[in-house]
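chain below, 384 aa
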Amino acid sequence: MAQEDYYELLGVSKTVSPEELKKAYRKKAVQFHPDKNPGNKEAEEMFKKVSHAYEVLSDADKRAAYDRYGPAAFEGGAGAPGPRGPGGMGGGGFHDPFDIFREVFGQQGGGGGIFEEMFGGGGGRDGSRDGADLRYDLEITLEEAARGVEKEIAFRKNVTCERCDGTGAEPGSRRVTCPTCRGAGQIRRSGGIITFTQTCPTCGGAGTKIEKPCSACRGEGRVPKSTKLNVRIPAGVDTGSRLRSSGNGEAGLAGGQPGDLYIVLTVKEHELFERQGEDLFCEVPIKYTLAALGGSVEVPTLFGKGALKLPAGTQSGTTFRLRGKGMPSLRGGHQGDQLVRVQVEVPQSLTAEQRRLLEEFARVSGDAAEPTSRSFFEKAKKFF
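prediction:
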């Protein structure tokens, strides 16, 4: 079955810039987010697909590998990353582009979101196996992204069985030498003149087997359990930002290392503000008298009210800048600006007195003789 093209999933061309790629992903993430499509499995699946596509294409190394090999670059094909190492999600020279927050989270802490297993760990000769990395999708508001916030998330994961302490063996029982391979972990089979070896099907290559499986976990060494966690989200995050919580993934097997937890963020669209990198953009309506005479007007910001001074004769569509009222930098030390575009409102109804005064103003200004500005008329002469 043909693989879906990552560029087509995000609705962009192969020459897309990083900033355009982020904007495209943000729109898709909002469109398919499970909170906006409750119970819609197709939307949930699309959300996972576009998130994975952005994860690959937003990293220069992974994007280059994808452009050369396609999805096979990340599925064990040519150029694919190696097994998960102790420092991250993949080997093979690739790094996680969203690993922006490695110091992690306090214990204890519900929320919603998608939660899924991402990568399983490799197995050892002694039967140990590292736990899988897990992913949790979390939606926050623009205000929370601007200030930083602590969220409580709740999910289920496999944890070490308390009855057997993760060994998989019933207390008082033990591991014994595998009777099939006699401890070798492999068996030999003959196919005519060719002899080949394969992993022992009884012990899975460990060379030992459990004498009596644990009654609580049935020999697995792990049991599913509901878990809560407090997650500290730093100010300045954006849609697609990923936080890493080391050791809060699934428990390992037989002494294997636990996996990591990745929280992938989506920032909700705001009713007033549009985010443009670290800057915020909004439109504010003003009275035509204020535009003509000039003055000061209060405008909303994410951090309270701000005062905007307007010069006399301000035209509709003029954009003003409020310094330091935008989004904070994720790395700190810098605050974006807020761009305010004013739209001059024309009254739809007038009292008799208002109409009389406006007509007098039009007469004094000569508006009846010249309804358009002189500069526009000079430019339009060539069309007549």
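The mean pLDDT is 81. Residues 131 and 252 are 4 Å apart (CA to CA).
thats it, cya
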